[in-house]
Amino acid sequence: MSGEIEEIGEDIKSTISSKDAEINDVYVAVGKNDLHVLQWALDHVICPGFRISLVHIFPPIKYIPTPVGNLSRSQLSKMQVQVYINEESNRRKNLLEKYIHLCNDAKVPVDTMLVESNSPAKALLDLIPIVNITSLVIGTRPSHSARRAKKGRDIGEYVKMNAPKFCEVKVVGQVQQPKHSFNRRQPEIARNSERKFLECICFSGKFY
Q1: What is the DSSP letter of 190?
Q2: Residue 100 backbone phi and psi in degrees, to 5
Q3: Helices (H), the chain
Q4: Pairwise CA distance, residues 152 & 164, whole Å
Q5: How far apart are CA 39 and CA 17, in angstroms?
Q6: Which stretches in the chain have pLDDT values below 50?
Q7: I want to staple 169 with a disulfide (CB 3.0 to 4.6 A). Which of 116, 142, 146, 160 is the partner?
Q8: Which of 16, 28, 24, 40 is nearest to 169 (CA)?
Q9: Contact 128, 164 (CB under 8 A)
């Protein structure tokens, strides 16, 4: 994996506005085991000139494992906290490497976006109008929300049901995967970057 990840600080909105989705960007939400989701996007969505943007959402660090159990950040020194943050950052880079390699093998340009949030579904829904996402591919995964769990919805289905009309969401299952590809015609998008949603967001450079 090459390139440095650019961490965005307080001025999140202005940075995001400079990285608005291009007409042929396809966003793919990836976690620990979503190679099949990315492969489906490469097989069914990508055309010449298209680009993949990988979106990885991870929870904020509140507790840190130690030999005496999980301790809150306030119970540890700044150096101890930073060491653990660096370790987690390296784990995320290693995780994304397999997805980037898959795109490289398919000769498809790829970007990566890291979003820190406790709610993957909300983070994705808030990200859509800010980055102007018109094509989103996501796998099925259980929701941690008790309300949605009772209704039998997973994160992918919830995002699809609540996404803006200009964003086409495809949910890829583990066994039965959707057979229909995206409509290649992309609608005009009303830009809206006024919603506040992230604790932290990171972008990487381009990979080819």
Answers
A1: -
A2: -65, -40
A3: 12-17, 35-44, 78-105, 120-131, 146-150, 155-162
A4: 22
A5: 29
A6: 1-18, 145-152, 175-181, 184-200, 203-208
A7: 160
A8: 28
A9: yes
What are the tokens at 165?
A: 């009309």
The pLDDT score that the predictor gives to residue 111 is 93
pTM, entire model: 0.72
Find the distance separating the first CA and the last CA of the chain, reported in whole Å.
Answer: 10
Cα–Cα distances in angstroms (integers) from residue 130 to residues 40, 110, 198, in the given order: 25, 19, 11
Instruction: Provide the token pair at 178.
Output: 């959707």
CB 155 within 8 A of CB 120: yes
- Cβ 156 vs Cβ 139: under 8 Å: yes
Longest CA span, the chain: 56
List the Cα angle 56/201/9 in 5-degree steps: 160
Bridge partners, residue 5, by sequence: 204
